Amino acid sequence: MEKYKVIDRSKVTGSTHSLLNKGMVPGIIYGKGTEPTKIAFENKALLKLMHTGSFYSSILDIDIEGKTEKVLPKQLQYHPVTDKLIHFDFLRVQNDTKVTVEVPVEFLSQDICPGLKKGGVLNLVRREVELSCNANNIPDKLQYDLVSSEIGDSIKISNIELPEGVTPTITDRDFVVATLVPPTVEVETKPAEEEEETTEEGKEEKSEDKTEDNKEETKEETK
Description:
Layout: E1 3-8, H1 16-21, E2 24-31, E3 34-42, H2 43-50, E4 60-64, E5 67-78, E6 85-92, E7 98-108, H3 114-117, E8 121-124, E9 128-134, E10 142-145, E11 154-156, E12 167-168, E13 176-181, H4 192-222
Parallel strand pairs: 1-4, 2-6, 7-10
Antiparallel strand pairs: 1-3, 2-3, 4-5, 5-6, 7-9, 8-13, 9-12, 11-13
């Protein structure tokens, strides 16, 4: 695992603004039973980690003045106007530290799924599932094979195999992760203007027919 070198902010002078101008992002490491540690992380390295797709479920090894710490990213703070990253929170962890993370779900065999081949649509109710596990046992992703899934099927959390020691944080129900729904059929409807025109034409035709009938009746009476 790559180790990332950070700065101990207690040993440097200067404001938060000056750190940001130097390409460093201030942050804090906290953990149960330990004192918070103020650090600064290189902005470029932090942004690169943020775009891996698994930032909030990855344990990072960081080097603070020669001392290695294991941390889990927990929160990022952005400037309200510029949207630039201005602060972060890391959770200090050990291998047996219980953590809560969100892990993406991957659906396999979509190219041969019977329901999808019939025109069905995979409706993702949850793209990520919140899990509880030890810090040394965080899965990169969850997987479900659609090889025999049909239209109308629901994939629930109980249908997805979880690693040993990993549990969903929602425990009071067997929640749905995705469904395989029928294709959406668009019903062609006439624009409102056309309907109004058709209605008006019908009224005019009826009015003309009635006028003709009245003329015929008048002719008969005259005779």
